[in-house]
Amino acid sequence: MLGRIRSLAVSQEKIVLLIAVVLFVGFSVFLKGFLSSGNLVTLVRGVAILGILGVGMAIVVIGRGIDLTIVAIYAMSAAWTLQLASLGVSIPAALALGFLLALAAGVINGVLIAYLEIPALFCTLGMASLVYGFVHYALVPLQVVYLPASLNAISWIGGGFVFGAPTPILFFALISFLGFVFLRFTKPGRFIYAIGDNVLAARISGAPVRPIIVLQYGLSASIAYLAGMITATAVSSMNTNVTNSSLVADVILVVVLGGVGLSGGRGGVRNVIVGTLLIGILLNGMTIMNIEYTLQNVIRSLILLAAIVIDSIVNPRDEQTAQQGDI
């Protein structure tokens, strides 16, 4: 009997997907205009950036880390790219320098966490303030940096269409696919799961733990830079104040909501996609209903809590299963 009950147990990912389907059907029936092609494109496009950042965060979280610097890198590296272009720097040079700024911040995070063993929470929190403060003081004195005319040649990155599909959606799909392949089929990806599952066992088995941790944060920063350039070219500007917004909490919410465990070694890109779909459908529907922003946050938080509680009930973990990564 117990075995049969366990066979019926569903994962958090499936629970969240079911909630997303129910919400989609409900909004389709009761909200006028929800099923219109324009609104559906807006829905998917609106969460593409959140999903891309979620993939970067998931790579870190699966390895039992956290990256609170991801939004600062997303905003400030893209803002510096726009600033350089406005000062007459060529497009390739501006893109390269912006990317190197993002990568440097990510690598520094990884080195401090891996080699100095600073807790990831405090390291990335401090680095987020450092990135924002340094770039704002020394490189980008403006709060809002606008896309200069010299970058119109790459405006298609965030504002273009391919066969009717907005390019941010396609980039989300591409990053999701590459992230899936990396985590599932490459040796570094398997090492990330091993480290998240049990870092001591991974080290004993010969996994290069410290270099892999640096790689995690480097990849997260690189993905953040791409997301920043997609945003900058989509809205023709970058507001550096987004660093101090709740966006980083939204990114963590998407990752955890979909089923990527904060304890590491569990989940994948598919979980990020599911979490992003739920948040996208929920926020789009509540926006159509003109629900107050504060109440939207309350509802979103309750759904997150419900998904975690239900998952803990239908999938109880004993001491042995807690040590196993869900690859």
From TrEMBL:
What keywords sit in the KW lines? Cell inner membrane, Cell membrane, Membrane, Transmembrane, Transmembrane helix, Transport
In Pfam terms, one family for this protein is BPD_transp_2
The membrane-spanning stretches of this chain are 15-34, 40-61, 68-85, 91-113, 120-140, 160-183, 212-235, 247-265, 272-291
Principal location listed in the UniProt entry:
membrane
Q: One GO CC annotation, please?
A: plasma membrane
Gene Ontology molecular function: transmembrane transporter activity
Question: InterPro entries recorded for this chain?
Answer: ABC_transp_permease
The membrane-topology field of this record reads: Multi-pass membrane protein
Compartments where found? Cell membrane
| Database matches in PANTHER family | ABC TRANSPORTER PERMEASE PROTEIN YPHD-RELATED (PTHR32196:SF21), ABC TRANSPORTER PERMEASE PROTEIN YPHD-RELATED-RELATED (PTHR32196)
Stated name of the protein: Monosaccharide ABC transporter membrane protein (CUT2 family)
